[in-house]
Amino acid sequence: MQDQWRLLQEAQAAYQRGIQAAQRGDTAAAETAWGSASEGFRRVLSDNPQRTDLYAPLADIQIRRGQPAAAYALLVQAVAEGRAGADDVRAAAANVLRLAERVGALSRPTITAERSEDNAERRALIRRLGTDGAVLLKNDGGLLPLLAGAGTLALIGPNVDVAQIMGGGSATVNALHRITPREGIAAQTTATLLSAPGADNHRWLPVLKSPMTLQFFASDDLSGPELLRKTYPSSEQFWVGAVEPGVDAERFSARATLSFTPAEDGEHQVSLVSAGLSRCFVDGELVVDNWSDWQRGETYFTFGSDERIATRVLKAGVPVAITIEYSAQASERLAIKAIRLGLHKPRGETELAEAERIAGQADVAVLFIGLNAEWDCEGLDRPDLRLPHRQNELVQRVVAANPRTVVVLQTGAPVELPWLDQVPAVLQAWYPGQENGHAIADLLFGAAEPGGRLPQSWPRRQADVATSGDPLRYPGVDGHVVYDEGVFIGYRHHLAHDVAPLFPFGHGLSYTRFAYGPATASAQRIEPGDRLTLSLAVTNTGGRAGSTVVQLYVADLAASVARPPRELKRFAKLFIDAGDSAEARFTIDMRALAFWDEDSACWRAEAGDFELCIGSSAADIVQRLPLTLTADWTAPA
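RESULT FIELD:
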């Protein structure tokens, strides 16, 4: 069974290589990789590697076309023709069952019915996790927390009335509810609330949340009788595998119709994204042609096209009829079929000026900006580290109108913050789940402490990251990416190359203050195999309870291989009441001193001098203790 497990892993890796080759247009390399994967799957199915030909139909069709029913039919045919016996089929089936047992698939033989659970305890937990994970990046002058009874608050930004609760792709789940920042704030303050969106932050034009009716046809060009008609809740629909009953997923076309009534006069953008051919008509006029020269892009896991956008002037209150024609046939077979209409009036100078105006009228301006699940999504990269659209300009204009400005940033990863020196307070809220607005309000008004610390270094600019400067590293050349950074990634890159980050790994402020006492270690010299204990007292010297994260880094001062200046080995999160103290205590062993020796295939800690570094981030080291290892130590993997 161990060999089968290894063969399965190798076959899966080969399958992924085939996908990557196909995506860059290298058909020969894709066929070679898929051939290797197919051979691997045959061997997984077979007890006898010399007879893998019996399982070729099953393995080939499963890996290339994802149609097991057809593969089973070929296997039945092999039995009928005497090329395989009943015992062969039973042996293959037994191997599949053993594999299923190995991965735990037999422990739950039926799929548990979907259910939802909504109670006060779960809501409170989600809310607390949101505050515990938030990171206070900056808080000059103690602007945060705000007084709940402040006279007037200006809530500004594209996320004021949108709950950015999670990332995209497989991270997406159906939330029971979504609390927006405005809803959370309104529940906790008596202040007068002013609001303005100010700028956009979408990656693709927003879909219409209005019914879209599709007529399906059993042809490539909408010819022939209508197969069925179905209405969907928005202007986006995609299918993986089956489409609708009676519709052949490999050969169908559809006509979508819906109506849109503009709320404002002016230029509106209309866009199409599709996995398959598509074109859009507004009041009978072709406005977006994604049919004549359709090409695969980055959407829908690279099976969909890039977005195509057109502009049309629309009049407020006057409905327009929208028709989309779609065909599943494209220049290549697509595992996903999709159609997505976006329609939006871009936010520009008018919206920026309104945000600036209300900021000047408020006691405090709170900006809700960042990315969303379209940017922070599996299957595609962000093109750069900039905030999209005019969000940076929005921040600069708002803080110029009101120096008492707080930025609530919601992203899944670092972004450039060119306005940071001008803004007194910045809170990184991430995507905290369905209680989003409540958690953010808890932090803004001090009902909770921002308990998170940065899990990644935050560069000042894109040029400061480890992969910058070499297209082979990022974004890659002809579908190939070189990973040659070694261990010098993240904070290790910043330290090794003396590149100061905007915020270091492990950074995060509190609403209170902490003082670290002197650290003590159980020894300054240790023998191979020994353990070392280190401890220090931490005192909350502020006026409220809070948390801090004590971090222990180890520096190898005379390594024979290239190692980072220091490496995180332990950390302790302490919750301390005002005026109280707590102890951070660490125990380290040889692995905390060791590196992986590639030549000897073992863990190795070399005799010599080390330094134990204690701090609140990778850059903020407040204490250093010497340590000597008297002789070399090694251990197998």
